[in-house]
Amino acid sequence: MARYIGKRLIYMFITLALIATFTFFLMKILPGSPIASADKLSPEQRAVVEARYGLDQPLPVQYFDYMFGLLRGDLGISINQFKGANVTDVILSRMGPSAQIGFQGMLLGTVLGILFGMVAALRQNTWVDYGSTIVAIIGISIPSFVFASMLQYWFGLKWDLFPVALWKDGFMSSVLPSIALAMFPLATAARFIRTEMIEVLGSDYITLAKAKGASGSEIAFKHAFRNALIPLITVLGPMAVSILTGSLVVEQIFAIPGIGEQFVKSIMVNDFSIIMGTTIFFSVFLIVVILIVDILYGVIDPRIRLSGGKN
Amino acid sequence: MKNSKILWLLGLVLVLSAFLAACGGGDDTDTGTENTDTEETEGAEGAEGNGGEPDSVQELNLLESAEIPSMDSSIAEDAVAFNILNNVNEGLFRLNEENIAEPALADGEPEISEDGLTYTFKLRDANWSDGTPVTANDFVYAWQRAIDPDTGSPYGPYMMAGTIKNATEVSEGDMEVSELGITAEDDKTLVVELERPTPYFMSLMAFGTFYPLNEEFVTEQGDNYASNSETILYNGPFTLTNWDGTGLTWTMEKNPEYWDAETVQLETINVDVVKETSTAVNLYQSGEKDRVGLSGEFAMQYAEDPEVVKELEPTLFYLKFNQERNGEETPLANENIRKAIATGFNKQDLVDVVLANGSLPANYLVPTEFTFNEAGEDFRDINGDMLPFNAEEAKTYWEQGLEEIGETEVTLELLGGDSELAGKMDAYLKEQLETNLEGLTVNLKAVPFGVRLELDEAQDYDMQNSGWGPDFQDPMTFIDLFVTGASHNLMSYSNEEFDNLVEQAKGELAQDAEARWEAMAQAEKILVEEDAAIAPIYQRGLMSLQKPYVNNIISHPFGGDYSYKWAYISGKE
């Protein structure tokens, strides 16, 4: 196990270096300048500002400077979004709210989704099944900005149950955005669990368990559910990353100081160091989650061996 | 099997109807909102504030559309920062309620030398928010810092070069910062030397880049200076609090150290950044916010609302006609072709139907309600309308132009922005021009702002939908964009007479206000009417909703967008 994780960590390092390299050069191809008032300045004046941020250096020099900085854990300073601010500080200050609504949304969505999926599978082709399928379809097909806007209008403005927007009332502020974020994992989990459960319920060992006289709930939870979880975990990992790292739409609609909308803006305004820093941060997160998912496979299904063969 | 298919269909229908219901809900939403509105405004005296006695609670709740990139006055280059700077700090002059620059930290008007090149300011007694006095050296330090190439300030060189003595040389590293034309004779006397007489110099002094900085405090903070609201000193009507440097929220509180604190009535201004207009409108409707800017479809939806406030911004949009592309003359090098296009589209319909945000059709370059002479007359009154929409005349110009260049058909590219509004506007222009000018084909090219700048610089376009906002309060900020070789010209327009007039207005006429205005007016006439070098389209308007209990927020044509110094709440309780 330790050897396996060690090997994965080395791969992870290589992957990161590649991602950083690709992002760096792709980003430099982006048209436009990171200087906000570039249209007003003369070329000489622009050169002075660019020199301040080291943008006057040849590209390879900029690249190696950046990569060596990265090795020291230095993500650089923001060029125009938060002029002069340390990129690490920017990411840390924006990560909290995104992670909180992401985690709550993910938890709510997955738990409800699994519940819906299981009930649908156990009561296949009844109104319960169709009902949960419809919820799943709606959850996937209604764009999140429509759903979030509706939540805001009805629950915030009209019924005054939760704050309309802004990040000021602690947990209460996080309720509507979490619900908005929960819709997608809910629908995904419900669909996966239903399909898998139906397949598992038709397999030989379930028939055997029934013949042995196991109770309905024992079959559902102990035998069927555990086996139905595997494919869900595969999609859940990356989905968790995408939700935890912030949703542009939901954060914008509820005016949450999160990292998602800030990342998108950094690309629009060519804030090179923020683009790089956030991309690397997201990549580390994704790679770690994929590793965790791989380890979890083994826990859920002992037949899946990580280090291959020897054990 | 068949049964389950029917059930699936049923499910689908249900989902679709959920969507339809959602849309229907949207419509109800609008009517519902309007009803609440009328209820709320009953008894109020209209949107411009009710002008009554101030309430005991003086708290204003505002929205902003973007974060503060920097509160460092040397580094700031965006509207949000300049707006806050205008309210938490102060320079030698400040734009007053009538948008005239009046002495602020300067104790009365400066002494100006005969040649108009040396200004001697006396400073009034004023303090920083930590109680230390504001001295002449604070200005010297701030200006030198803004022009120092090591600071990397974009607006320092932009605002000072060509105006303040030696600014260009210092900014390019050819001279020491100490040679910049600003010296402190003593703690209360500041001497500024100029490169050339600058009639609008006082209004420049109201701009954030020229504000003072407390040297001791700034050096002590080092890299931390202005990284959050605790590491800044204030000398304006308010102080900034609760700003962590990257957040979406901050507060402005009345500054007890401000020299004119007795004028300031507001105690607290709470600001939150909301980037989504629908969210901003919801916060306004819920009563959490007192003012909200309306964009796009929201402007149209609330146009008739009694709480709407309309402002005219001094930002002008126009078509640039590129006369030379890739070393070859374009059809736009022909004057009649340019005039045909300039008069060939209906601007009134454009602002009424497509923009619908309170914008004005523009038949001019220098915006209306922007600059005034000493008698208070608008610069706009001199020239009036030039080349207004006239389909008949456009046709005549067009046929003449086609004959002169020996073509029957012309294809032109129209370069524009990639926003939804820009797309709608350019599509409208295409439709109008192709209908009114037979044989013209307009190809639209929508690109992001950065790409447009690059194409502009390479002069790689035929027509371009472009805009400009002023940096100081003088017609020159618009007019000198188009002199031969100017960095914004980039369309090979060159007219000696025009260049001479601009040169005169900047040089020998600089001290003769009347003759100078006359020269600039004449230059504008040549550019827009005689040469049709550009085709003005519209002057931008801005619509906002404002609660009736909000009074006296002053909007400014340049620098900081608003002043809250004179604002107050009345009738909210």
Descriptive tags:
A: mainly alpha, 12 helices, B: 573 residues, alpha+beta, four-stranded mixed sheet, 23 strands
Describe the structure.
The complex is a heterodimer of chains A (311) and B (573). By secondary structure, chain A is mostly helical. In chain A, 74% of the residues lie in helices and 0% in strands. Chain A has twelve helices and no strands. In chain A, α4 crosses α7 and α6 (144-158) crosses α7. The longest helix of chain A has 36 residues, at 87-122. Chain A is flat. The mean pLDDT of chain A is 86. With 573 residues, chain B is α+β, with helices and mostly antiparallel strands. Chain B is 34% helix and 19% strand. Chain B has 18 helices and 23 strands. In chain B, the strands form seven sheets. In chain B, strands 11, 12, 15, 16, 17, 18 and 19 form a seven-stranded mixed β-sheet that branches. Chain B has a four-stranded mixed β-sheet with strand order 1-10-9-8, covered by helices on one side. Chain B has a four-stranded antiparallel β-sheet with strand order 4-5-7-6, covered by helices on one side. In chain B, a hairpin with a 6-residue loop joins β21 and β22. In chain B, α10 packs antiparallel against α13 and α17 (496-506) runs antiparallel to α18 (513-530). Chain B is globular and about 75 Å long. The relative contact order of chain B is 0.15. The model of chain B is unreliable at 16-47 (pLDDT under 50).
